[in-house]
Amino acid sequence: MFDPPVTVEEWRLAGRQFGGVWAGTPRIAFEEDLVARLAGLVDALRTSVEDMDEAIAAFDQAAWTAWEAGAKGDDQDAQGVSVPVDRTDIE
């Protein structure tokens, strides 16, 4: 069973991790999976987070920031948070 993060900050962290995993991959592949992931997260968020729109926006923005940092070869995102580079779970 999927146990989604509860706070907006937890969703932001999850987005950073997601974007970091995809860092260095083609934009189209990242964007397609991000869109699919966001669609699935909406259902999980309906009852778990007070502000669903803010949580989705935080995840989306953090994922893009982390992916862009990886595309530039940076090891940190715009907030100075280290971006994970483990891509072993990408299919």
In short:
Residues 70-91 are annotated as: Disordered. This protein is an all-alpha fold. Helix content is 59%, strand content 0%.
Q: How would the blueprint of this fold be written?
A:
Blueprint: H1 8-22, H2 27-45, H3 52-71
Descriptive overview:
With 91 residues, the protein is mostly helical. It has one domain. Helix content is 59%, strand content 0%. It has three helices and no strands. Helix 2 packs antiparallel against helix 3. The longest helix is centred in the C-terminal third of the chain and has 20 residues. The radius of gyration is 13 Å and the shape is elongated. The two termini are 21 Å apart. The C terminus is likely disordered.
Annotation, overall tally of beta strands: 0
The computed structural class is mainly alpha
Beta fraction of the residues?
A: under 5%
The gross shape turns out to be elongated
Rg, rounded, reads: 13 Å
Cα distance spanning the termini: 21 Å
Q: Mind describing the biggest β-sheet?
A: none
Helix residue percentage: 55-70%
Q: Please tally the helical runs, counting DSSP H or I stretches of 4 or more residues.
A: 3
Uncertain runs:
82-91
Task: Give the overall pLDDT as a whole number.
Answer: 75
Provide the succession of SSEs.
Answer: HHH
Q: How many domains make up the 3D coordinates?
A: 1
Region (Disordered): 70-91
